[in-house]
Amino acid sequence: MKMLFQPKTFITLFVMQSSMLFAGNGATIHWGFLVMGLFGGLSLFLYGMDKMSDGLKKVAGSQMRNILATLTQNRIVALVVGAFVTMVIQSSSATTVMLVSFVQAELMTYAQSIGIILGANIGTTVTAQLVAFKLTDYALLMITAGFAMTLFGKKDSIRHIGEALLGFGILFFGMKLMSDSMKPLRTFEPFIDLMKGLENPFFGILIGAAFTALIQSSSAFTGIVIVLAQQGLLTLDAGIPLILGANIGTCITAGLASIGTVREAKRVALAHVLFNISGVLLFIWFIPDLAALVRSLSSSSGLTGMDKLAAETPRQIANAHTIFNVGVGFIFLPFTKVLEKQVYRMLPKTEKTKGLEPATWHLDESQIGHPTVAVELARTEMSRMIKILSRMVYASIIPFTAKEESKDSVYPELSIIDGIRMRENKIDFLERKVSDYCFKISRQELTNTQAVEVFAMMSIAKDMESVGDIIDKNIIPLAGKFQNIQENFSMDGENEINDFHIRVMKQLSRLNEAFGEMHLKTAEKIITKDLKYRNLESEYRTTHLRRVQKALTESVATHEVHMELMDLLKQINVYLANIAKTITSMDLPE
To answer: Tens of pLDDT along 362-386?
Structure first.
């Protein structure tokens, strides 16, 4: 391996050869058409990859969520899941960004994500292997078949498969355009010499990292490298440093996604960077050995010169890419705990500060284009709303059972009343943010199930906001009225109110489980209990009126407050049952 490299000398050579590239041989090479074909083909390549990724993600549908939800601490399972998910969405960067969002949403821990990061780089090798197959001659056939399935398919699954096939065809058609545009360069000596310069590992890794960071897709850059190899313009020794650099450049996407996230999510991006850079530093010393291994696995074509390079190198680069990523994945797999501890040293835990001002914790605008992930983020934010609402309902009974002013259990600087109003402000804020987020999701191309789920969540958020309004606009003023009465509830009356309040709290606990984990049986139980609690409220109303008829002093003095408070608690119970009914309606077939 050549390690002697003078940057100034190479830069001078690069500038001289670039000048010759655009000035020399102008009579034989039509530079305008070459540039148009190259960038036009690259545009189609990137668009096709994005189209294929979208189609495959829609085919996977909510299964992506289920796969990630069933993750365990088993590092091997996590690696396999990471490889599979990346194979489906065709981007290790997208997988890592998804992990950042999921950790931000507290759907998984940073420790669970490490195994998936290891598997993500393995999954992305599938794209390189597919690109290495010479399918460009069938690109228009794939485009035709994909378009027909998209246009005439009656089922969503057929249309989504068609969309993926259409993207696959566009990808290969873009490759064909790039490949055809580069053919004149096969006889252009300055360009050939420039490509040979990439055999220097340092410069090859630098170029690979920079270009991948620019287009934010290691799969796309690997495809470009293979296109160069198909024209015999790139040797295996030059191609390997480029794909090593791509593994470093792909970290930029996760790094950008982690900006503004919680510390746990930042650890995911940092782990991705450390893993990829460590892998490159490990293999950089063995590039000649890796090249020799790959050549030994490839059958000789019997050709010579540039034709031999064009015939053999694309497959060799794809194989080197696979061997590198699989090898690094399994080498680092036993050391995930070491990596985990190292990242914790670099980003240690800090005490989480809780603010009084309303703010979203989990919504991520960058994931709007990925409905499966975005729906999960909205669901997690709404689960937080339920927890805030539970604190409001719990605190709302305290002013009726204690005449002296009480302090908020979480924020001692606030009174119970101020704490409730602060949380009502949060509920109103979150309802607006969640509804707006869900509306943006609804404008994406969704499956029938996703569309039902998104609009159901908007309805649920509105119902939760209505519960907050009942507490803030009705129960709190009623508490002020009760404080001015010189009497307390009768012992039986207070026991009945407390009992009904406890039952409402149980409904909220069931709702948290039913919504957060989509337990439909729990949602059905909420609906069943609603009817039972309505009947119980009627019984308590009757027993209270009997006490009033007996002219019991406490019951007469607190009659109006007692009746209204029980009615308001019943209204809250009705709203919770309505939310449960909405949850059961979300269980629709695809």
So the answer is: 887 877 877 877 888 888 888 889 9
Residue 415 and residue 530 in one domain: yes
Q: Which residues contact 236 (CB under 8 A, 6 or more apart)?
A: 291, 294, 295, 313, 316, 317, 320
- Could you give the CA distance from residue 148 to residue 456 in angstroms, rounded to a whole number? 33
Which range marks the domain in which residue 54 is found? 35-346
Do the Cβ atoms of 292 and 320 come closer than 8 Å?
A: no
Structure tokens at 586: 């979300």
Reported pTM: 0.62
State the maximum Cα–Cα separation within the chain, in Å, rounded to a whole number: 112
Task: Supply the DSSP symbol for 415.
Answer: B
Instruction: For residue 356, tell me if it sits in a domain.
Output: no
Burial class (CB in 10 A: 0-12, 13-18, 19+), 285: exposed
Within 10 angstroms of residue 192's Cβ, the number of other Cβ atoms is 16
Domain assignment present for 2: no
Average pLDDT over the chain, rounded to an integer = 78
Instruction: Determine the Cα–Cα distance for residues 574 and 581; give it in Å rounded to an integer.
Output: 11
CA distance 216 to 248: 11
For the chain, the domain total comes to 2
Residues 156, 253 within the same domain? yes
CATH code: domain of residue 427:
1.20.58.220
Quickly state the pLDDT bin for 590 (edges 50, 70, 90).
very low
**∠ CA 405-409-413 to the nearest 5 degrees?**
65
Q: Is 349 left (phi over 0), alpha (psi -120 to 50) or beta?
A: beta
Q: What is the CA radius of gyration of the chain?
A: 31
On whether both 293 and 389 belong to a single domain, the answer is no
Which band of pLDDT confidence, cut at 50, 70 and 90, is reported for residue 262?
Answer: low
